[in-house]
What we know:
Layout: H1 2-28, H2 32-35, H3 37-46, H4 51-65, H5 68-81, H6 84-109, H7 118-124, H8 129-163, H9 167-182, H10 185-214, H11 219-230, H12 239-245, H13 247-260, H14 267-271, H15 278-307, H16 316-323, H17 328-359, H18 364-383, H19 388-410, H20 413-424
Amino acid sequence: MLSFLNSRLLGIFLPLALVFVGLFLLVRCRFFLLRHPYRILQTVFGAKGNRRSAFRAACVALSGTLGVGNIAGVASAIAVGGPGAIFWMWIFGILAMVIKYAEVVTAMSYKREGHGGAAYYIEHGLRKPWLAKLFSALILVSSFFVGNIVQSAAASASLREAVSCPPWLSGLLFAVITLLLIRGGYERVSRFSSVMIPILTGGYVLLSLSILVVNYSFLGNVLRMILEDAFSAAALWGGGGGFLLGRALRYGAARGILSNEAGCGTAAYAHAESDSDAVCQGFWGIVEVFVDTILLCSLTAFVILTVMPELSVGGMETAMAAYGVVGEWGSIFIAVSSALFALASAVSWSYYGSENLAYLGGKQKSRRLYLIVYSAAGWLGAVAAPGLVWELTDFSVSVMALVNSVCLCLLSAVPAEATKRFFDHRPTQIG
């Protein structure tokens, strides 16, 4: 039953629903992303004063999205959906930027006592406290699956493949390190993320570019392969209706959703910790999606399609084999990077869970207990077969995205008005 629902929600309905939401919000915000790219970059990289706060919040949010989806997930999307899935991943990535922007701006607008997120704008914006509590409870429960068990399982599989680390040991290390990091609250989580994420991202980009530079003569063929397959008869199922249900579109959009979590309502909690202006912080949400989907997922796709153009099997092993073209150390680097990305995701999701536990009325003692149980779940993820956990993960992400996206559309006047005020004002100095 759960598998059937996931095949409908993730396979067809959810990607199309989020594409519609992205287009709707893009129109409501007057196509700002396409009209003012320079102003957005100028604001993000030229802002003064609270830039550190904004950057840390964005890194925490990015920690929650980077992980196995950027590496093994991309390989799987190509194997199942064909190279054309990457084109649709790009299209959804652009729309996801708008969704994430609206999500962050709305969260910043409904902050209460320095805290904000989906539950806060559902309660105070839509006046639906019962729905806010249900949504908050869903994030809390999902933190164990989406943010921890699945991540731990991925980290364990990567380390087992690369350095033959037994699952019980990798799980134990994962659980202990997670607990040590999350006990310090948002401050320690943000410090860890703001150091780890730039290092991991920089290393991954450099390794990917080194492979692509050496094989630059194949890049034109890879790009042609992606574009041709995106609209090929094999990738699309006949006519206009078939276009909407094409395997390339479905797997590309679905991979984008699971990679950047746009519309799920989770990253809004991290961004709301910033003391930046709502629109400026929203621009950091755009950067978050760009790094996650447009940059890292694209680099992974180009490396895999350059080295293994006839890919038929996805997964971490395939990604490691592709990056192993530079030598065994390349495969080990990918495995270790995947494990560290997974750890960063678990650390970030612990904050989401803790924030929602507090929103539901959890006191300090219950929050401490949550952190202990949450960390222990990391060991379970490494030693137990995920199976049903993957189904629960897909289902919870789908439900969160659907509910939150509808709420964002109903509250679309908030980011629309904030965006209009920002771009209608022409300050002599931004920040």
